[in-house]
Automatic annotation (TrEMBL), chain B:
Domain Cytochrome b/b6 N-terminal region profile residues, every copy: 15-227
Organism: Qipengyuania profundimaris
Ranges where the Cytochrome b/b6 C-terminal region profile domain occurs: 230-408
Pfam families: Cytochrom_B_C, Cytochrome_B
Taxonomy, superkingdom: Bacteria
Cofactor or coenzyme needed: heme b
Protein name, UniProt field: Cytochrome b
């Protein structure tokens, strides 16, 4: 008994000790909080809410939109950004037939080896090749872009919070900083080689506005290529590159849930029946 | 073990008779989770989570083994092979999303299982050993989950590994050599990734072994129950099968509906977007946060912001974080109230619902938030309460509290005066 008492005594002392030290940190922190000024956060905006065809539990790809987005990537983004986890063969999932995939792949130069000399060279792409990187390596990418390496875009919409809306908002959101913002946060003025964008957490990013005028890309389906339209389309395309199985996933989910719902109702009824006899009678 | 009225296994045919003589495996199952295990008749749905935890352990092992067939634990290609699983492996995306969300669900059901134990003080004699094994399982789960999160080799994988192994660096004198030894280098790299993969594959089987011991230890006193009154007679119990197999089956259905909703419709909701960026030792994420199930303990770690009597704040945080879980080991000897169930403990109940639960919620929120005010101050208050609750309040409440009257037996608690409903008079025969 004395032994047990001593365990509790040690515990009580230890508990008071932990609490005391935590409260000491609290008092010091609270004093600093009341007396010192903390650096204010730069006010950036949450992504706008665009409605995409693949949103929601029954969402589906808009194949036309994905093809328009590919064209924006192909003609604009691919100058600086790679798409290394996507193969040309994957394009057959967004409505291109075998011939179109082959022709598209062949129009790109991918790294290869000269069969006669063994030297590094380039060759036309095959459907099994992956999208080539615009730069031979990270050093070249940094050198060409003022030391800011353009990120690979394969997964960009999964690598940002609310990624699809974020990419679309960012691309369509370049603007001059407002006078009020600069009055309140003079440090928010873009430095040399930086561009203001309210959706970027630092408010200033190294990427120059990539989409600058309506009709910059000529859409094959006749859609008017406004800056916002191009931003939305390429964000949709990059959602597909980040998760080509997104629609398959949602469509597989429904039968799974319906089956589970059915099985669970059966289990509930079995439970009720088996337990009925041993439950107390209702008064 | 078990009770004298437990049903005896009788082999039905020649084959099961042969088996029963040579290797009585069916008898073992019958006595463990079949009609041969008498269980209190008054268990609520809070007693479903043990079986659910077992289910998710098996799910993690099965999906994990399949993922390991396609994954390569090499810092050069780990991120790419994860994407290979997502894109090129047939149903690979399903296996990976089930494994990632399966870890979250494993923790959800285990947390409910543990907090059931807190409220009904399931840890009290004669069930101390079950509790000790359970806390051990929880610690092994934390280690396994941490190492598993490193394997995709994303930004949070890398920086999480750096922060957590950095905790060992806080140990005086030997901390830095220990950290280098654990990582196999100065920072997480191939050596760390390889050993984490090896251990991440091994530990689930260690957990499975501990689960077997946990269940074995459970079968000696039998399951606890919401009244905390021990089993007195046959009418207090029902055979596990069919009564609890069917009840657990229904609970499993509900859990699977929630789980599959996450897997198919919100598979990344519980993850961090930064982990879809490949690990980059030169770029630190703005906020390094662990997976959600570590947030309460991460908040305790970060609550200690000021050195105290020459002890560096970081070391205090590390001691408090490990201490906050290790103290669960001595709970059976701290809480000496003779009453088990929180239903009959008015004072304990107040501290549980208005102290511990809010403190855990605050710690959870603060652990996931950036290290800024007011989160830091809130986490400091909640941390202080957390330690006071377990180490000071629990032992004292047990001494000074006047418990409410207990029912004479489980049967009385369930049936009241309805004597006819006692098992044997109008119960259906076990299937």
């Amino acid at each position: 008994m004395t032994k047990l008492l001593s365990i509790r005594l040690v515990a009580i002392l230890a508990g008071l000790g932990f609490a005391l030290v935590a409260l000491y940190s609290f008092v010091v922190g609270a004093f600093a909080f009341l007396t010192e000024e903390t650096a204010p956060h730069l006010p950036y905006e949450e992504p706008r809410d665009f409605a995409f065809s693949f949103d929601g539990p029954a969402g589906k790809w808009d194949v036309q939109q994905l093809q328009r987005g590919l064209k924006v990537y192909d003609e604009v983004c691919s100058a600086c950004h790679s798409l290394k986890y996507v193969a040309f063969r994957n394009l057959s999932q967004i409505g291109y037939d075998e011939g179109q995939v082959k022709a598209y792949a062949a129009s790109k130069q991918v790294p290869g080896i000269d069969p006669n000399t063994g030297e590094a060279t380039t060759r036309p792409g095959l459907p099994t090749d992956y999208f080539p990187s615009p730069y031979p390596n990270a050093v070249a990418a940094a050198a060409a872009n003022n030391n800011a390496i353009p990120p690979d875009l394969s997964l960009i919409t999964k690598a940002r919070g609310d990624g699809t809306n974020y990419v679309a908002s960012l691309l369509a959101g370049y603007q001059e900083p407002s006078a009020e913002l600069l009055a309140e946060h003079p440090e928010a003025a873009p430095g040399p080689g930086l561009y203001h964008n309210p959706y970027f957490p630092n408010l200033n990013l190294a990427m120059a506005p990539p989409l600058t005028s309506t009709g910059q890309v000529t859409y094959d389906d006749g859609t008017e290529a406004t800056i916002e339209q191009m931003s939305i389309d390429v964000a949709a395309f990059l959602t597909w590159t980040a998760e080509p199985t997104l629609v398959q996933r949602k469509q597989t989910g429904w039968p799974v849930l319906l089956f589970l719902l059915f099985a669970t109702v059966l289990a509930y009824l079995s439970k009720k029946q088996i337990w009925a006899a041993v439950k107390p009678k209702k008064k | 073990m078990s009770f004298p009225w437990a049903k005896e296994y009788t082999p039905a045919n020649g084959f099961t008779k042969f088996l029963d003589e040579k290797l009585p495996l069916p008898r073992l199952v019958y006595n463990a989770v079949g009609a041969g295990y008498p269980v209190p008749r008054n268990l609520s749905y809070f007693w479903n989570f043990g079986v659910l935890a077992g289910f998710f352990l098996v799910l993690q092992i099965v999906t994990g083994i399949i993922l390991a067939m396609h994954y390569a634990a090499n810092a050069q290609v780990a991120f790419a092979t994860t994407e290979h699983i997502m894109r090129n492996v047939n149903w690979g995306w399903l296996m990976r999303y089930a494994h990632a969300n399966g870890a979250s669900f494993f923790f959800i059901v285990v947390y409910l299982h543990i907090f059931r134990g807190f409220y009904y003080s399931s840890y009290k004699a004669p069930r101390e050993m079950i509790w000790l094994l359970g806390v051990t399982i929880f610690l092994l789960m934390m280690a396994t989950a941490f190492m598993g999160y490193v394997l995709p080799w994303g930004q949070m994988s890398f920086w999480g590994a750096k922060v957590i192994t950095g905790l060992f660096g806080a140990i005086p004198l030997v901390g830095e050599p220990i950290q280098i030894w654990l990582l196999g280098g100065y920072a997480p790299d191939n050596a760390a990734l390889n050993r984490f993969f090896s251990l991440h594959f091994l530990l689930p089987f260690v957990i499975a072994g501990c689960v077997i011991l946990h269940i074995w230890a459970l079968h000696i006193p039998g399951s606890s129950n919401p009244t905390g009154v021990e089993i007195k007679s046959e009418s207090d119990t029902l055979p596990f099968h069919p009564y609890y197999t069917v009840k657990d089956g229904f609970g499993l259905g509900v859990a699977l509906i929630l789980f599959m909703t996450m897997v198919f419709f919100l598979p990344n909701a519980l993850g961090h977007p930064d982990n879809y960026i490949e690990a980059n030792p030169l770029s630190t994420p703005a906020h390094i946060v662990p997976e959600w199930y570590f947030w309460p303990f991460y908040a305790i770690l970060r609550a200690f912001t000021v050195d105290f009597l020459f002890i560096p704040a970081k070391l205090l945080g590390v001691i408090a974080m490990f201490g906050s879980i290790l103290l669960w080991f001595i709970l059976p000897w701290l809480d000496r109230s003779p009453v088990r169930s929180g239903h009959y403990r008015p004072l304990f109940r107040k501290f549980f619902w208005f102290g511990l639960i809010p403190a855990m919620i605050v710690l959870f929120i603060c652990g996931g938030a950036p290290a800024e005010e007011p989160y830091v101050m809130l986490s400091q208050l909640a941390t202080a309460y957390y330690f006071l609750h377990f180490l000071v309040i629990l032992p004292i409440v047990g001494q000074i509290e006047k418990p409410e009257p207990l029912p004479y037996s489980i049967t009385e608690a369930v049936l009241g005066s309805d004597k006819k409903a006692v098992l044997g008079e109008n119960a259906s025969p076990a299937v």
